[in-house]
Write a structure and sequence with these properties.
Helices cover 60% and strands 6% of the residues. A three-stranded antiparallel sheet has the order 1-3-2. The longest helix has 28 residues.
């Protein structure tokens, strides 16, 4: 991958652009927190060629939600489960909306 390819992917929510240290700094948390939500399988960071964890913007949003719950007193395992369920609900609602739109009768075009 060239530098131009990498620069072009920075707008990609799934591109693993952030190191563990930078991700922890952005979330105002510890690297241990990121490791723990990885162990709980909330997020699975990609690995660089050297084996270092890399996080995407999408993963950082998920981690931020888990952090919000933990800061509110929710145990980390429960916070991870809540975030997973919230994401599943959001996806189910999106699919439901798509199905309803597809099932709507189309209106004839006026001549």
């Amino acid at each position: 991958m060239t530098a131009d390819d990498t620069f072009g992917r920075l707008d990609d929510d799934d591109y693993p652009a952030y190191t563990m240290g930078r991700a922890a700094e952005m979330l105002n948390t510890t690297q241990g927190f990121l490791r723990s939500i990885g162990e709980a399988r909330l997020i699975t960071p990609l690995r660089s060629a050297g084996g270092h964890r890399r996080y995407s913007r999408y993963q950082l949003r998920i981690a931020a939600r888990a952090r919000e719950l933990v800061d509110g007193g929710t145990p980390i395992e429960a916070a991870c489960r809540i975030v997973i369920l919230e994401n599943q609900l959001q996806e189910a609602q999106r699919l439901n909306t798509e199905h309803h739109r597809a099932a709507e009768p189309s209106t004839p075009m006026a001549a």
